[in-house]
Design a protein that fits this description.
Elements lengths: L3 H6 L13 H14 L1 H5 L7 E7 L2 E7 L4 E7 L13 H11 L2 E5 L11 H21 L1 E11 L1 H15 L6 E5 L11 H5 L6 H11 L25 E8 L3 H13 L4 E10 L10 H17 L3
Parallel strand pairs: 3-4, 3-5, 5-6, 6-7, 7-8
Antiparallel strand pairs: 1-2, 2-4
Helix pairs in contact: 4-10, 5-6
Pfam family, one: Abhydrolase_3
GO molecular function, one term: hydrolase activity
Keywords: Hydrolase
Length: 304
C-alpha cells in the first residue's frame, strides 16, 4: 500500500498549468517548481562546519564537510538529466555528510536539452579528476578514499562514471545508486504496474531521448549500464529501490547483474514509497531512513 505520507508529499510541488503546452516552457516550469518546493519537501538546512560552493575544474560543485582529511563522496542529483540541481539535493547531502563523516561533493552538471550527452558525464568525470588531483590541497579532503553516487538520472551517471574509472585503472571505492535509471528501453514490467505514481513510461522515454537524442548511442555502455560487456571489478554497491517506482525492476536487474559479476551488493527495497522519495526528508519517514542507510554504508565502507 502506498504510504499516506507519499500522497501528502505529492501536493507540495506545483504542477504545470494545463495551458502550458510548449515542451521547453514545461521544462522550465518544472525546474523552478522543484527549486521552489525544496524547503517544504526537504526541510531546513542542517548546519555543518563547511558548506561552500567550489569550482571543481570548471564544474560548479558544493562541498559539505565536518572535518579535514575526510573521505569523499561525489554526488550527482536526479531530475531526468534535465532538471534538479545542487540545491534540490542540498538537504540530503548535508545529512549524509553529517552522519557519515565523509565530505560530500555535490555536482552541478550541465542539463539537457541545452547540453546533451555526454556533457553531464564529462562534468562528473571532470569533478572526479579534480578531486584526485586537487582535493587534498584545495578542499582539505582525502582523495585516496573516494566514492560516487546519485539518484535516478544521477545514479545512471554515477555508475557509468564508476565503470569508466574501473576501465581507466583508477577504480572507485564504493558506489551508491538510489533508484537509478538503467534501461533506455523502459522495458521493465514495473512501468506497467506502478507507472501512475509519479513516473511513467512516457516521461521516462522522453527523458532518455532528451539526454541522448541519437537512438543508437542510447544503447552503448556509456548510456545503458547493462550494455557493458563485463561488470566484474565494479566497486561495492548500495542500490536503493522503491516499491511504487517505475524504475524498481531495472534497479533490481542491475543489482542482480553486479552480483553475478562478483560485485558485493546491498540492495534494499523501500516499501510503500515511490520514485523521488529519498530527498523528501521533511515529509516522508523512509527518506530519513534511506539517507541514513547511505551514510552508514559510506562510513563502514570507507574505513574510519
Amino acid at each position: 500500500m502506498l504510504h499516506p505520507q507519499v500522497a501528502a508529499a505529492a501536493g507540495l510541488r506545483a504542477r504545470p498549468p494545463a495551458d502550458l503546452t510548449e515542451p521547453l516552457e514545461i521544462l522550465h516550469f518544472m525546474r523552478q517548481a522543484m527549486e521552489d518546493s525544496n524547503d517544504a519537501e526537504c526541510g531546513p538546512a542542517l548546519p555543518l562546519p563547511v558548506v561552500v560552493d567550489v569550482d571543481a575544474g570548471g564544474v560548479p560543485a558544493r562541498l559539505y564537510a565536518s572535518r579535514v582529511d575526510a573521505p569523499v563522496f561525489v554526488y550527482a542529483h536526479g531530475g531526468g538529466w534535465s532538471y534538479g540541481s545542487i540545491e534540490t539535493v542540498d538537504r540530503v547531502c548535508r545529512r549524509i555528510a553529517d552522519r557519515s563523516g565523509c565530505a560530500v561533493l555535490s555536482v552541478g552538471y550541465r542539463l539537457a536539452p541545452e547540453h546533451v550527452f555526454p556533457a553531464a558525464l564529462e562534468d562528473l568525470e571532470t569533478v572526479l579528476s579534480y578531486v584526485r588531483k586537487s582535493g587534498a590541497a584545495e578542499l582539505g579532503v582525502d582523495p585516496s578514499r573516494l566514492a560516487i553516487g546519485g539518484d535516478s538520472a544521477g545514479g545512471q551517471l554515477a555508475t557509468v562514471a564508476a565503470r569508466r574509472q574501473r576501465d581507466a585503472a583508477t577504480p572507485l571505492d564504493l558506489q551508491v545508486l538510489i533508484y537509478p535509471a538503467i534501461d533506455p528501453m523502459t522495458a521493465s514490467e514495473s512501468f506497467d504496474e506502478v507507472g501512475s505514481y509519479g513516473l511513467d513510461r512516457a516521461s521516462m522515454k522522453r527523458a532518455w531521448e532528451t539526454y541522448v537524442p541519437d537512438p543508437m548511442t542510447r544503447f552503448t555502455p556509456d548510456v545503458a549500464p547493462l550494455a557493458a560487456e563485463d561488470l566484474a571489478g565494479m566497486p561495492p554497491t548500495l542500490i536503493i529501490t522503491a516499491e511504487y517506482d517505475a524504475l524498481r525492476d531495472e534497479g533490481a536487474d542491475y543489482a542482480d547483474a553486479l552480483i553475478a559479476a562478483g560485485v558485493p551488493v546491498v540492495h534494499t527495497r523501500y516499501m510503500g514509497v515511490n520514485h523521488g522519495f529519498a530527498r523528501k526528508l521533511a515529509v516522508v519517514d523512509a527518506a530519513r531512513v534511506a539517507t541514513d542507510q547511505v551514510a552508514s554504508y559510506l562510513r563502514t565502507g570507507l574505513t574510519f
